[in-house]
Amino acid sequence: MSLLVVGSVALDSVETPFGKKEEVLGGSATFFSTAASFFNPVQLVAVVGEDFPEAHVQFLKARGIGLDGLTREKGRTFRWKGKYGFQLNEAQTLDTQLNVFQDFAPKLPEAYKGAPYVFLGNIHPELQSQVLDQVKGPKLVAADTMNFWINGTREALLKTLKRVNLLFVNDAEIRQLSGEHNIVKAARAVHTMGPSRVVVKRGEYGALLFEKDHIFACPAFPLEDVFDPTGAGDTFAGGFMGTLATAGRFEPDVIRRAMVMGSVMASFAVERFSLDRLRDLTQPEIHKRFSEFKRLTHFEDLAALQA
Amino acid sequence: MSLLVVGSVALDSVETPFGKKEEVLGGSATFFSTAASFFNPVQLVAVVGEDFPEAHVQFLKARGIGLDGLTREKGRTFRWKGKYGFQLNEAQTLDTQLNVFQDFAPKLPEAYKGAPYVFLGNIHPELQSQVLDQVKGPKLVAADTMNFWINGTREALLKTLKRVNLLFVNDAEIRQLSGEHNIVKAARAVHTMGPSRVVVKRGEYGALLFEKDHIFACPAFPLEDVFDPTGAGDTFAGGFMGTLATAGRFEPDVIRRAMVMGSVMASFAVERFSLDRLRDLTQPEIHKRFSEFKRLTHFEDLAALQA
User: Could you list the residue range(s) of the whole structural domain that residue A115 is in?
Assistant: First the structure.
């Protein structure tokens, strides 16, 4: 079942303790759609400028991503510049240039409006609402957001959240959004805002899924070399939503598999700069790491041990 | 198989955002032995002062803990005073009074020297070594330590670690001990110091076990109310070591169960002040929470899902 994503496509300049890259492919919708494309057809709605390299367009096309909603406008592409210390969990933003993204007003191609699975990347909540005004009866609407919108456009965000089924946030964001320090209470508060499912991303500590009567915990894969955490959250969401969309249902068994698949994809993304690790990633590698997650977390229940 | 613990028995004064307790039962060996006593006979070696309430001794006795190595010396009992903010992961120490603990020289009763399972609580590494000088061919020696010893008595600690099979540390401690920021590399560095097994405790984020070719991740139980994290790490170690000792072996299936049981016991300990939640804890409650951990972490492998 087709999966629609609306968000940013960007050129990133990133510095980590392990190296530096200038103007490489980035953006929430880019990471998301690339990760999701390993599982399910993806339709991308975003904007780039005249300077956006054609090679990047070709890369997305080669991954089978629908680009009818990717418009090229006069001006420069959105740029983000960030830096990470050894504490790789949090980026320091050095510069943001919205450029063509400043006037982004997502317009869905007719053929995309019936997408049953929708992911609203981390953009202004009013733009997220505009997307929802255009889609026709989606099965599942997921969204990402950040401190900037939680603080600055809270009313608009709360309005959007009423129409969202699943929210991706990190620890700090859910605390800020809910006003609750305790994560369990914070998730319950978010349920009352609309989303009946909340995924709390905790970087190197993994992710938690909260449904009303059901919690699932997935660790992050313990990696020896994390080169660049940029896009890990969107890659997680891409693996997650791609898994749901291809299954076409979201019972607990599928939701749990989606959590693990999100973690699998994120674990690859951070191994190299930009989307480089996803470029040559193969299905057997994905399956192998999924099995490694099983090995990482599996234990016998008490009955089996006592037998 | 009997389990020996050497460490501190203390009177704690603790303040958290949820309340305040003065001079309640505490200490690494107290939390450890109480937790372990749910699984296996425990022999405690520690020192208290003349002011140590007899009711606490009776509590430990009622839990079946061997107290032949608990000596009462002239002077006051070891006292610790700490405070937690909403970020419950780290305590701020307000005051430490060593008192009788200052001259503690652990002397093992003859009957304790053959203990196959040994836990060296967080005390001076030279005292830890003195304990190991007295035991006769233990099957497994586990130890805890902290930043104070890693910084201040590094040489003595490295000498002790050569004789330790399993080390319990937290994130910050393993980074400090190894000089590696990455946890996987840090664990590998600790393996070369002696311990072939390392458990990294990460508070609300759970715990990781590193063996040479094997990693296991266990989340912390998502609790709505964490009242007092004091002793969570030692309670974890108690549940862990009690589980190993009662199994009498440490193949991966048992080690994994021990990790989960450690997490189960720690999840109870933090629900109330001091050891209060462990006082009325029952085996059915322990088994129920173990099952809840299974539910929290379980997912089907891909083959099962595709079937």
Answer: 3-298
- Cβ contact (<8 Å) for B205 and A208? no
For tokens 């053929």, name the residue: A111
- C-beta atoms of A216 and B299 within 8 A: yes
Is B298 in Cβ contact with A291 (below 8 Å)?
no
CB contact under 8 A, B299 and A259: yes
CA distance B239 to B253: 15
Q: Does the residue A76 lie in any domain?
A: yes
Query: What is the number of alpha carbons within 13 Å of residue A23 lying toward its C-beta?
Result: 5
- Determine, yes or no, domain membership for A304: no
Q: Is residue B115 classed as helix, strand or coil in its secondary structure?
A: coil
pLDDT tens, residue by residue, B193-205: 999 999 999 999 9
**Quick check: is A192 in a domain?**
yes
Q: Which two tokens stand for residue B127?
A: 């005292």
pLDDT tier at B307 (50, 70, 90 boundaries)? very low
Q: How many helices (H) and strands (E) does chain B have?
A: 12, 13
**Closest approach of B202 to chain A, Cα-based (Å):** 9
Report which of A64, A35, A59 is spatially closest to residue A264, judged by C-alpha positions. A35
Q: What is the DSSP string of A164-200?
A: -SEEEEEHHHHHHHHS-SSHHHHHHHHHHHS-SEEEE
Pairing type for strands B214-218 and A92-97 reads: unpaired
Q: Quote the CA–CA distance of B145 and B168 in Å, as a whole number.
A: 7
Residue A280 DSSP code: S
Cα B192 to Cα A19, A160, A290, B188, B251, distances in angstroms: 29, 53, 29, 7, 21
Question: Binning pLDDT at 50, 70 and 90, where does residue A305 land?
Answer: low
How does DSSP assign B224-287, residue by residue?
S-----TTHHHHHHHHHHHHHHHHT---HHHHHHHHHHHHHHHHHHTTSSTTHHHHS--HHHHH
Q: What is the pLDDT of residue B253?
A: 93
CA dist list (Å): A120 to A117, A163, A222, A305: 10, 11, 29, 45
Quote the DSSP letter at residue A91: P
Whichever domain contains B154, its CATH number is 3.40.1190.20
- Name the residue among A254, A291, A302 with its Cβ closest to that of B287: A302
Cβ <8 Å between A182 and B290: no
Tens of pLDDT along A106-158? 999 999 999 999 999 999 999 999 999 999 999 999 999 999 999 999 999 99
> B306 lies in a domain?
no
Q: In this complex, which of A86, A253, A296 lies closest to B217 when CB atoms are compared?
A: A296
| Residue count (chain B) | 307
Structure tokens at B190: 């600790």
**Other C-beta atoms within 10 Å of A276: how many?**
16
Per-residue pLDDT reduced to its tens digit, B143-191: 999 999 999 999 999 999 999 999 999 999 999 999 999 999 999 999 9
- The total number of structural domains in chain B stands at 1
**% pLDDT > 90, chain A:** 92
Quick one: which H or E segment has residue A46? strand A42-48
Residue A230, φ and ψ in degrees, nearest 5: -55, 130
